[in-house]
Design brief:
Alpha-Beta Plaits; Rossmann fold; seven-stranded mixed beta sheet; six-stranded antiparallel beta sheet; transmembrane helix; ATPase_P-typ_cyto_dom_N; nucleotide-binding; metal-binding; phosphoprotein
Length: about 675
């Protein structure tokens, strides 16, 4: 299948009709034309000229086509000319020149309503009923009863409505396209001491590129030389620059601010974070929510229903109540116009597209409208502990020294400096924070599962857990201190010389700075339950839960037990699961909504429905607020569209419904729902 970008689509119904015509061509089976994204997918062997001809019937064209791309939608100019002719005809009518005024009215109708009229006639012949069919019948009826003036107003207002409808959707698409322009096009490749400009698609893993100040980093990689600050807003939504130096990873698409960076590519562009984001955002435009699918099905049966109601209004009053045929026909035509489903069909796609764009700007990647809709209904959020609420990195929380504290840190850091174990690195980091200079031990020996011993400054020391030491060394005070740390959920590391315990360290997984604030915000915006799921023991889980403020905690869970707990929670609420690791993927998949941290494992990110590209929870509450706003906007749009039409239809009972009121109610509803949906893009404080 080949993909083309189509411009000039005026409405979702029109796009669907064009799609059906393209599908009827040879090799047209499976062709899709998506109104939301403006994407056309067709078989490579289809006759593209015939496709262009079909698109042209709606004023649409393939944007990639060199000649077509120079085209502009002429509808606005035709409508402008129609308005001028309409005003001219009004003047001639006042002067009593009726024949000339009728000719001018017909010319004005032809200019602004020609597309609708032609498409409507084709639909009538094929027994296909949509808004073009309704408008065409209404115009023919208006001619038949001599309502030239009102027929012209109907054609002009419908033309304006059609133009504005297309404009609203194009505005939402353009906002999303701004994200897609973040992709760099070329890279400065360093090869054999020479520099070459190459397309980013040609970069291979292991290639080294030079990124100058102001340039975009071409793909994900690691800095091997240089130091600079980098703006990662395109990926994470975070505006503050981040300092990068040798050994630090960088995202493709982020901007190098001031220094020169040599970056070694770790992922081909097609596998980079930015490429995945752009691909998923484009895919997300083309998914339809259950509500959208319902609206489209509803519109399919709604249009014939309106035609039946219109026929009823035209025939019943004259036949049974001796009403005027002229008035009944007039009222029936007005009903046809009121019944146009434009506003109803537009009530959802613009709002969803705007919501996904707004979240993408914030670094929250929503993989489809259905997931955005679900996010707005979430009332329970389950969090994995390690790497989500916490950093997944041990740090020293307590130092209890029975000798000088600096001396204890010096001995411990010297012993642990040769180890890559996370607990060892936490102790070394603690010494660095206290600006303590340490050195590697002169001799060392490891005891698997318990610790190690080594010689520092000519003296033997030991470091490890309880199993490393003779219990006679544990005085009452040491036992009391150790028990206190255990109750607080700490992992304990003891340090001793050959005669006694010198001190102990309490180590715990470091809680993310934003976790407590995020949990508070979630409760404030109406999340009923925040649940922490962890494989850690209960004491540790309780301490973390107490510090961050979650409402429920479940500890010592295996991956399959996390899934069972998620299923249990789903019985009463719409549940989102937030995680980052391989063992979170099953729970992410089973929850109503899976949310992954941006720097989590690939399996978690692939499984998740939403990805937090910042690798922290800070944007989650705002994303939920935006999703709820989208849902509220869609409901309000539907209510406005239906209530305006219902009100207009009720005016038929006393005979007050005019063609003017009918078209204004339809046009007003369409414009109102479009503007209301676009307001979602407006940045303001949401929580």
């Amino acid at each position: 299948m080949k993909e083309y970008r189509v411009k000039g689509l005026t409405c979702a119904n029109c796009a669907r009709a064009l799609e059906e015509q393209i599908q009827s061509l040879p090799y047209g089976e499976g062709a899709t034309l998506n109104y939301n994204s403006g994407k056309l997918r067709v078989h490579e062997r289809i006759d593209l000229e015939k496709v262009r001809t079909i698109l042209a019937t709606d004023g649409a064209y393939i944007a990639d086509d060199e000649q077509a791309s120079k085209k502009r939608n002429p509808l606005l100019y035709f409508v402008g000319a129609s308005i001028f002719l309409f005003l001219t005809a009004l003047v001639l009518e006042r002067l009593g020149i009726d024949g000339a005024s009728i000719v001018i009215y017909m010319t004005a109708i032809a200019l602004s309503g020609y597309k609708t009229f032609v498409k409507g006639l084709k639909n009538i012949i094929r027994f296909r009923f949509n808004m073009d069919t309704l408008m065409t019948i209404a115009l023919i009826g208006a001619f038949g009863i001599g309502e030239w003036k009102e027929a012209t107003v109907v054609a002009i207002l419908f033309g304006i409505n059609e133009y504005l409808e297309g404009l609203g959707m194009e505005r939402a698409r353009r906002s999303l396209d701004m994200l897609l322009k973040q992709a760099p096009k070329e890279a400065l490749l360093i090869s054999n001491g020479q520099m070459h400009v190459v397309p980013i698609q040609l970069l291979q893993v292991g290639d080294v590129v030079l990124v100058r100040p102001g340039e975009k980093i071409p793909s994900d990689g690691v800095v091997i030389e240089g130091k600079s600050s980098v703006n990662e807003a395109a990926i994470t939504g975070e505006a503050m620059p981040i300092e990068k130096e040798k050994g630090m990873s960088v995202y493709g698409g982020s901007v190098n601010n001031e220094g020169m960076l040599h970056v070694q590519i770790t992922k081909q562009y097609k596998d980079s974070s930015l490429s995945k984001i752009l691909h998923l955002v484009q895919e997300a435009q083309e998914t339809k929510t259950p509500l959208e699918l319902f609206i489209h099905r509803f519109a399919k049966y709604y249009t014939p229903f309106i035609m039946i109601v219109s026929l009823f209004v035209m025939l019943v009053p004259p036949l049974w109540f001796e009403a005027s045929w002229h008035d009944a026909l007039y009222q029936g035509l007005a009903v046809l116009i009121v019944g146009c489903p434009c506003a109803l069909i537009l009530s959802s796609p613009i709002a969803l597209l705007a919501g996904m764009t707004r979240n993408a700007r914030k670094g929250v990647l929503v993989k489809g409208g259905v997931h955005l809709e679900t996010l707005g209904r979430v009332r329970t959020i389950a969090f994995d502990k390690t790497g989500t609420i916490t950093k997944g990195k041990p740090h020293v929380t307590d130092v209890i020294a029975y000798i000088d504290e600096n001396k204890l840190l010096y001995i411990a850091a010297s012993l642990e400096s040769v180890s890559s174990h996370p607990l060892a690195q936490a102790i070394v980091q603690k010494a660095k924070q206290h600006h303590i200079t340490y050195k590697q031990p002169e001799q060392m020996a490891t005891r698997t599962g318990s610790g190690m011993e080594g010689k520092v400054d000519g003296k033997w020391y030991r470091i490890g857990n309880e199993r490393m030491f003779d219990h006679q060394l544990f005085t009452e005070q040491i036992q009391k201190d150790a028990e206190k740390l255990k109750c607080e959920g700490r992992t304990i590391v003891f340090v001793a010389d050959e005669q006694r315990i010198l001190g102990l360290f309490g180590i715990a997984d470091e809680i993310r700075e934003e976790s407590r604030k995020v949990i508070q915000q979630l409760h404030r915006i109406g999340i009923r339950r925040t649940v922490m799921l962890t494989g850690d023991h209960e004491k540790t889980a309780e301490q973390v839960a107490k510090q961050v403020g979650v409402t429920h905690t479940f500890a010592q869970l295996l991956p399959e037990q996390k899934v069972e707990k998620i299923k249990e929670l789903m019985k009463n609420d719409t549940v989102a699961m937030v995680g980052d690791g391989m063992n979170d993927a099953p729970a992410l998949a089973h929850a109503h909504l899976g949310i992954a941290m941006g720097k989590g494992t690939d399996s978690a990110i692939e499984t998740a429905d939403i990805v937090l590209m910042q690798d922290h929870l800070g944007k989650l509450p705002e994303a939920i607020v935006i999703a709820r706003r989208v849902n509220r906007t869609i409901r309000l749009n539907i209510a406005i569209a239906l209530s305006l039409k219902a009100t207009a239809l009720l005016l038929t009972i006393p005979g007050w419904l005019t063609l003017w009121i009918a078209i204004l109610s339809d046009m007003g509803a369409t414009i109102f729902v479009s503007i209301l949906s676009l307001f979602i893009l407006w940045e303001k404080r949401t929580i």
